[in-house]
Give the backbone structure.
Amino acid sequence: MAAWMVERRLSQNVVRLKALRAELSQIDEQLDVFASDADDSAIRALVSETPGAAFEANDARKHAHAMARHRQHVVDTIHELERKQDELLDKLSGKR
């Protein structure tokens, strides 16, 4: 592969990594809020013992779990891009 092509892919990879790391930061903040809301809803459901409160607690828990799954997906994508970046750097330096 030509050096200019490797450099182009490396540049694209860096931009994508930067965007994903910024997204991960936002996800972490949102996950904290969702987890706190889920905990509060669970306590309210235990205290009130009403079906509506239990539904709200379950809904809040589902949102927190969905955000946690999304966070894991972003983390996995970051790791994959870092691996690709290492491969591209190896190609650029002539190790492969």
